[in-house]
Design a protein that fits this description.
Keywords: Oxidoreductase. The protein is built from twelve helices and twelve strands. By secondary structure, the protein is of the alpha/beta class.
Length: 327
């Protein structure tokens, strides 16, 4: 029996875990091929030309690449975001695109809450000041209690839902802007529904972003939106860097239009010179909110499940992104 080739491209770990799962599941018609090659697009297409499935994290899957892979049936992302894949091109060529929603919900939820507490208590800011020789508990901006403050959540997927038990314990009011979620659904979690984005911006003491990067969310937070926020507000971004206009954020922080910001993502994550790095009223982590051993293995299992459903069982993958591909 000819096996279907699946290319794992520039995935850090060995595939022993995946191969053990295939044995456990009784799947014998998939051959996992591991390639680490950072030379670029041409070498990727050369490696993937015979593949019916590819598993990627950060590799760009452009229309040009997809058109050069005639056997390709599925792109399985070991991630939530799909902004590195031309989903329309995949759909046009009958290629399924899948992701791993919820694989790191607990990790990102806890990270966002941690950043929220850090900003409120100035933990990182005071740590920096002590290391610089300043022993001053009043250093930096003025602080207030979290109790009774309004935490605004932009969208309400698995990560904000995982945040809710922690937010309830902190005794804050939670206001959510999520047009697709009904008021009763949000109330079931103990949250209130914001009818407009403007309502969320103007009422939030802490605004936390939890949306995918799309055309409509690129620079969702820019100069206009920052000016609408409270001068005492905190901004938290654990979504995607380009959801926030970085230049506008730097300007707002320098001009005290908002109090502080904490970001796990920036617009250009290859840079060593972001203007955000020089600001005292920022916390920056290196796109680490999703990281844990548990989340890594969860993502790997989910990504493999999508491949098996499509290639071995000829089923609709459980986490299909481009639903139109089946029409």
């Amino acid at each position: 029996m000819a096996k279907k080739k699946v290319l794992y491209y520039n995935i850090d770990d060995s595939l022993d875990f995946e191969r053990d799962l295939l044995i456990e599941w009784g799947i014998q018609d998939i051959d996992l091929i591991e390639v680490k090659d950072y030379a670029g697009e041409k070498t990727f297409t050369a490696h993937a030309r015979e593949a019916e499935g590819v598993v990627v994290e950060y590799q760009q899957m452009t229309r040009t690449i997809i058109e050069q892979l005639p056997k390709l049936k599925i792109i399985s992302l070991q991630a939530i975001g799909v902004d590195n894949v031309d989903v329309k091109a995949a759909t046009d060529h009958g290629v399924y695109v899948t992701n791993c929603p919820g694989f790191c919900s607990e990790e990102v939820a806890l990270h966002a809450i941690g950043l929220m507490i850090d900003l409120t208590r100035k933990i990182t800011l005071l740590d920096r000041s002590v290391r610089q020789g300043k022993w001053d508990p009043l250093y930096g901006y003025k602080t207030n209690r979290l109790t009774g403050k309004t935490v605004g959540l932009y969208f309400f997927g698995s990560i904000p839902q995982a945040m809710m038990p922690m937010l309830r314990a902190l005794k804050v009011r939670v206001l959510v802007y999520a047009p697709t979620k009904m008021k009763a659904f949000l109330e079931g979690y103990g949250a209130e529904k914001a009818e407009t984005f403007e309502e969320l911006l103007t009422q939030s003491d802490i605004l936390s972003l939890h949306c995918p990067l799309t055309d409509s969310t690129t620079h969702l937070i820019a100069e206009r939106e920052l000016k609408m926020m409270k001068k005492s507000a905190f901004l938290i971004n654990t979504a995607r860097g380009k959801v926030v206009d970085e230049k506008a954020l730097v300007k707002a922080l320098n001009n005290s239009e908002i109090k502080a910001a904490a970001v796990d993502v920036i617009e250009d994550e290859t840079t060593e010179e972001s203007p955000l790095f020089a600001l005292d009223n920022t916390i920056i982590t290196p796109h680490a909110a999703f990281v844990s051993e548990d989340s890594f293995y969860n993502a790997r299992k989910i990504a493999l499940e999508q491949l098996v459903q499509r290639l071995s069982k000829n089923q609709r993958p459980s986490h299909l992104v481009n639903q139109d591909v089946m029409k």
